[in-house]
Specification:
By secondary structure, the protein is mainly β. The protein has five helices and 17 strands. Helix content is 12%, strand content 31%. The strands form five sheets. The chain has a seven-stranded mixed barrel. It has a three-stranded mixed β-sheet with strand order 10-11-13. A two-stranded antiparallel sheet has the order 1-2. Helix 5 links the parallel strand 14 and strand 15.
C-alpha cells in the first residue's frame, strides 16, 4: 500500500507494506537489553487450579502473565510524568502517531574522566534542522548487533549534554528517539538535567512531547528523512513499551 503525504510544501510517497522496525523485541528468559538494574522481562502461563494457560502444557489457549519494567527492559516511550508529579500520562501525551522524522548517526565523544557524551557540536555536524520535522531519531556509533541484548546496568553508557538537548528543543523537535538507556548519565544523583531540559521541567511542561529510549537502528537503514509511526499502550502511567517503525520516503 502506497500513500502520498504532504508536509508544508513538501510532497512524499511511502510504502506502508515495507516497514523498518526500530523496536528491540522482548524475549522471555533473556535478560537483555536491560538497564538501571531492573528485573528482567518475564512471561509465564497463568496457573489457577487445574488450568495452565499454555498450549505447550495441554491448554487450548496461551494465557500468559507478564512482568515488565518499561524503563529498564526494552524499547519504551515516556512523557513528562517520568520526572514531574501530576496527572501526566503517556497515553494522553501521545495523541497522534505519525510524524516526519530525521535519522542521524553520531559518535559520542570521550571526555576527561571517561564519560562518552553527545554535545551540540555532534548534532551540528550531522543534522540540518527542518521546521517540518517533529521527530529526531539518533543512532549512536559504533552500532553492533550486541546492543539488542546488552546489559547496560553499571556500565555508564553514553548520554547527552543538557546543551545538546536545549539545541534539539529550540529547533522544534517534539519527539526524541535514541538507542541509549537514557539521555542522562546512569548515575547523576537525581539531577536529570537532560530530561528536565527536554520536558521543560522549570517552566510550562511540554506535555505533548515524548522521549523514546532503547531503540535499535540497524546499519542498513541510512540517515535521512522517514515517516515515523510511534505506538504505545493507552496506560495511565508515565511510560509504555512502544513500537517504533519508520517508512522510507520518496
Amino acid at each position: 500500500m502506497e500513500i502520498r503525504i504532504s508536509w508544508g510544501e513538501q510532497q512524499f510517497r511511502a510504502d506502508l507494506s515495507a516497514p523498518l522496525d526500530l523496536t528491540i523485541p522482548l524475549v522471555p528468559g533473556q535478560l537483555g537489553p536491560n538497564c538501571f538494574y531492573a528485573p528482567p522481562f518475564e512471561a509465564s502461563p497463568l496457573r489457577a487450579g487445574d488450568f495452565v494457560g499454555s498450549i505447550a502444557e495441554g491448554s487450548p489457549v496461551n494465557f500468559f502473565n507478564m512482568r515488565i519494567n518499561p524503563h529498564g527492559n526494552g524499547t519504551h516511550t515516556e512523557c513528562v510524568g517520568h520526572i514531574k508529579s501530576g496527572d501526566f500520562f503517556i497515553g494522553q501525551s501521545l495523541r497522534s502517531f505519525h510524524f516526519l522524522s530525521q535519522l542521524i548517526s553520531v559518535y559520542p565523544e570521550k571526555k576527561e574522566g571517561g564519560d562518552r557524551v553527545i554535545d551540540v557540536s555532534h548534532l551540528q555536524q550531522h543534522w540540518d534542522p527542518d521546521p517540518e520535522v517533529a521527530a529526531l531519531i539518533i543512532r549512536t556509533l559504533p552500532n553492533p548487533d550486541e546492543k539488542k541484548s546488552h546489559i547496560y546496568s553499571g556500565t555508564n553508557p553514553p548520554y547527552f549534554s543538557p546543551e545538546a538537548i536545549d539545541f534539539i528543543v529550540e529547533r522544534g523537535i517534539t519527539h526524541l528517539l535514541v538507542d541509549l538507556p537514557s539521555v542522562d548519565p546512569e548515575s547523576d544523583g537525581g539531577l536529570l538535567a537532560a530530561h528536565k531540559s527536554f520536558f521543560n521541567f522549570s517552566g510550562p511542561p511540554r506535555t505533548e512531547s515524548t522521549l523514546s529510549e532503547l531503540l535499535y537502528i540497524p546499519n542498513h537503514i541510512k540517515d535521512g528523512k522517514y515517516l515515523l509511526q510511534l505506538s504505545v499502550l493507552r496506560l495511565e502511567l508515565d511510560v509504555s513499551p512502544s513500537r517504533v517503525v519508520v517508512y522510507q520516503l520518496k
